[in-house]
Structures are given as structure tokens and as C-alpha cells.
Amino acid sequence: MKQYFDAKAASLNSHDVLLPLVEMAMQRGINNNKLLKGSKLFYTDLQSPHKKVSFEQLNTVINNAILLLPSDGLSFLLGQHWLFNQVSYSGQALLNSKHLMQMSRVIQVKQFALCPFVFFTPYRSHSHTHYVVNFAIALPQPKVTQFYFEMIAAKINALCKWRFNFTQKICIKFPFSPPQHLEQYYAHLGVQYQFDHPCFCISIPNETLTVPQATTTPVMQQYYLQQARTAPNTIGFIQYLCELLIKDPKIGCEEVAQHLRVSPATLKRKLKQHNTTLQTLKDALQKQHAVINIGERGYSNEQTADHLQFSDVTNFRRTFKRWTGMTPTQLRNIMT
Amino acid sequence: MPHSFIKLHTTLLTTLLLMLCFTLFIVYQLGTLKPLQEIDWIDCIGEGGITVMTLIWLLATLVMRPKGLVTNLLFFGLSALHISLLLDFLDEFFIFSHHYSWLSSLEAFPAVIGMGIMSVAMYYWSHEQHVLNHLLTKKERFYRTHGLHDFITGLYRADYMKRQIEQELCGLSQSSQCFCVALFDIKGFAHFNLQHGSLRANNLLFDIGQIITLNLRNTDLACRFASDRFIVLLPKTNHLEATYITEQVAKMVAQHTPYDLNQTITGFSQLHCHCVEATNTDTLTTLLFQLNEGLAQQKRALVA
User: Fold this and answer.
1) Which reaction does this chain catalyze (chain B) (predicted)?
2) Which of A39, A217, A264, B247 has the most CB atoms less than 10 A away?
């Protein structure tokens, strides 16, 4: 089994997101002490080449940035910055992949180097592939969650504009209502987007997944991947649990604790620190499965209930309403 | 910030320190310490409090203001007031023999002079404010709120514009005063950003913001919308007039030549622009949507 790291572990490279964020905020007249307040980080430390920070510290700084620079679109700028500054072997392997399909595999294999904060699960329907994105380390506050999702949307948007010509065909579904700073979405996103979806999901037409990427040398991809073999590859705490839950959806608290080699009480405390419970994670996984089956794959309630091993359809409908705030029929209506 | 303010006002801060030392020295030389039981501690707390507060105001003034006449006047006025209050405070701890009783009677005089100087400072400050207001004519309308200010362009942010458009929409439904909103987008800004870096790109945004405001009428308002987009409100203007004005603005921006640090030309900057006139059925959301949709269509047409 893979190694995992939690929200308090200083394992993230500060040069990926934190340092560019601090620099951008400083260019906007923000004092770096105010921005780093509460994170126990100092500006001079961040500049050292091997400085690692924890997910919790990063979230504190993002939260400060949202308060100090409301509706400034920093999340979008950070996403673009990230894409154009990929110098690691993993990043080069990504940018030299043949097409989107191969890119998604590179991200899965080199997840720690490319996107340690989130992991995605692909679901294929007859016309599209839907990549449902979930947090890998801990569940941040709603505002910070929105910031991360905007950043990911900006990365995908910038990638499609740079390397492909089907930006318009990709649809990003955000799990929140249209925000106050909608103008940032207008100005930054060329992809299509929707709000108020039950999960954060990126839908890509199947035929575009194998459209070749412009200006790449696919031969080099293998070389870069080999070079990147020595890079550490661990996964976040939540993702670790989710992988256990996907393998065995009926797994209980004690078995999970055994896997992690901790007591059930420690596991519960740890889950609380990460802003979640085992039941929340189980529900979230089942919910996204149900949402994709009903909203995207056109399954009936009976098929989905059967698929998720519900004893009867009424029970499934009731649970679906609890998860998403709407009935399966309402979701179908929204999606059409 | 504190470092730069000490550097900026070294002379004034030295003067303040000398004045305070001189006051303390005079009082110490001419007075004798009161016995502890005679000191009225409650009075000390009150008078000490106002002395400290005036010192804080004095330092805050220096932190906030650049060098200049108004700053000097404010400084000397507040310093005189502070010295008066300091003398009053020290009075609680020292007794002066009848030879030097003039010191206690004169203690209020610096305050009177200081307040006089501060009144003059206020007069010049109002002039200064007038000049600043004039500079802000096309950047703000009716009210000032620093919280909605965009640091990079020096204009207000989209939130400020949204409030203004909502007011105009109210005016449109009540007295059918037509108005237009225009959106500008810098052509190839992402490319410029990649080629010249974000600092140069931020400078370009500032420059273009200035050019847009320069080429508007006094009644118009320009704000930064998001990223490389600017939004302009043209009150009491029909679509024809507004199109003319926005095209004029785009022409002026196209003539702008940005230079980089080595004084070499970094390419020219052109604008996409789209302008819509508000109708009675519009809401803020639909109006902004129309504007952005129009601009997106225009850009798509160019690519195709």
C-alpha cells in the first residue's frame, strides 16, 4: 500500500502555489506579514529552495488572501502561472503527452508532483468522459475550496488554449452558486462552465480526448517519466481513505483504523482535524456515482439503486435527496 | 513601511525628539519632585492618556503623509499641542517654586498656538483635497470607498461599477434616462504577460487604465472589470454616441507605445471593445452577461 500524508505534514513544495501567491499579493500592495498571518511562515523562509509547507498552512494563507484581496481573481492567475512554469520532469512528461487521455494518466501516475491537493475519478458516458475532482488531503472551508476549484479550472482553460483548439467544447461544473466575482469567470475562462452542480466535475467530449497535442515530442514523454521515477509519490490522507472505501465500500471504522495502524479513537480525531467523517466520505463517493449515473449516463433510478446496492428505490430516492438537495428527476431536468 | 517612514521624515522626527528632551530637561531643572502621597493618580491617568493619544496622532500623521507644507504644518501644530499636554501631565509630578510659577501658567500657550497652526493646515489640506478630487473625476462618481480600489490600475474594481450600474438602472426605470456600458479587452494580453512578465503586464494595465480615463468625458466612469478587461459607464448617452466614444478610446490606446526597462519598445496594444445600451427590462446580471457575450462573439469571429 502507498504512503500517505496529512494536512499538518510539511510535504508540499512552497514554490508551486504559495510563493507565487505571496508574490502576486505583494504586487497588489499587500504586506507579506499580513498575508502569512497565522500560518507560522516567514517570507524569507519561503524563498529557500527546499522549503516545504503543509496543506493547513497553505489554506491559512489562501484564506488571508481572499480576505485581503476580495474578488481579485488571484486563483485564476495562479492556475495560469502554474501551467507556464512546469519545469519538473513530471511537468515535462505532462506537456509532452500525446493527447488529453495520456495527460490524465500522467497526472494519475505523478499525482504528488502535479496535483497533490486533489485527485480525480473518470466516469465514461456514451458522449463524454466526466472527471469528478475531490480533495486529496483534507476538506478546506467553502471559500478556500472555491479558490482551489477556480485554480484548477484556470489550469485546464490555459492548457486547452495553449495546446488544443477545442476549449469551447469542455464544460466545467462547479459545486457552488454563481459567485459575486462572476466577472473573473467571464474574463478568464474560455471553456464552458455551469454552477450549482452536485460535484466538481470536468466533462470532456470523448472524441477530443485523443486529439493530438500541438508542439509536443511524444518520444520525450517516456524519457521524462523515467527521469521522474525517483520523485516521491505519496497521496493525501483523504485520498488514502477514499481508495480503501472504493476497494471495499462496506469497510468499517475499525478496519480502516487497522489499515492505518492507529486506534479507532485516533482515526476519529484525525478525521475531525481534516474536517470530515468516514460516513461523509462514503456518502460523497456514492453521491458522485449516483449523480453521474443519473445526470450523465441516463440510467434509471432502479438501475442506479441496484448499482449502488440499495435495497429499494424509495430508500435510494430519499438518500439521493439528502445528498444533493434535489430528487433524481430534478437533476435530470437540470442536466437537460 | 515603518522603516520607510522613519527615512522619509528624519528631520521632523529629530525635531520632535529634541523638543521633547528640551521640555523634560526644563521641567526637571526648574521643578522639584512631589512626595508620592501628594500625587493624584486618577488625574495622572486622564492627563497621561490624552498626552499619549496626541503623540499617537502625531506619529500616525507622519506615517500616512508625504513630505510637504501641509505635513509640516500638521506636525508643528500637533507637536505644540502635545507639549502643552505633556507639561500639564508633568505638573502632577513636579512642584515649581514661586520663581518659576510662570511655567505652570504658560503651559496652555503652546496648545493655543498649535491649534492655530492646525487650522491653517486644515485650510491648505482642503486645497490639496480639491486637487486630488479633480484627478479622480473620471475614476469615481458621487461617493468614495477605498475598500473597492484596485491597486494595479489605480481605478475602482468591478464591485464599484456594479453599484453604479444598479443606480443607473433605477434611474432608467424611474425617469427613463438612457445610459450605455462599454467593455474593453486588451488584445493578446496573455501573450504580453508571458513575454514580458507580470510586472510589465501590470504596468501596461495601469497605462491603459490611464489612457481610457483620459479619453472619456467628465461624467463617465472607468473601472477595472477583471484581468485585462476594463468597464466604462456612459450616463445619459445613447448607443450611437457611446460607440463613437469607445471607438475613440480604442484608437487612442492603439497609439500607445509601451517601453520596457531597457527603453525598447515592447509592441503595441490594441483593444477589443463592445458597448450596449441598457433597456428597461435589463438587470445588472443580464447587462453584464450581454456585454461579455458580445465581446466573446467578437473575439471568436476574429479567430475564425
Assistant:
1) 2 GTP = 3',3'-c-di-GMP + 2 diphosphate
2) A39
- Among A27, A73, A181, beta carbon nearest to B202: A27
Domain extent listing, chain B: 2-135, 146-303
CA distance readout (Å), B105 to B20, B88, B110: 19, 10, 11
Q: If pLDDT is split at 50, 70 and 90, which confidence band does A226 have? A: confident
**What ipTM does the predicted assembly reach?**
0.80
Examine residue A87 and state whether it is found in any structural domain, yes or no: yes
Domain that holds residue A70: 4-230
Task: Choose the mutation target among A183, A191, A192 for the interface with B, i.e. most B CBs under 10 Å.
Answer: A183
Of A27, A72, A187, the CB nearest to B225: A187
For the domain covering B146-303, report its CATH number. Answer: 3.30.70.270
Distance separating alpha carbons of residues A167 and A161, to the nearest angstrom: 6
User: Contact A251/A245 with Cβ under 8 angstroms?
Assistant: yes
The answer to whether residue B3 scores a pLDDT higher than 70 is no
Average pLDDT over chain A, rounded to an integer: 89
A150 with A176, same domain: the answer is yes
Query: How far does A168 lie from chain B, in Å, by closest CA?
Result: 10
Number of inter-chain CB pairs under 8 A, A vs B: 47
Q: Which chain B residues are Cβ-neighbours of A71 within 8 angstroms?
A: 157-159
- Please report the pLDDT score of residue B244 as a whole number: 93
- Render pLDDT for A175-207 as a digit per residue (tens, 0 to 9): 999 999 999 999 999 899 999 998 999 999 999
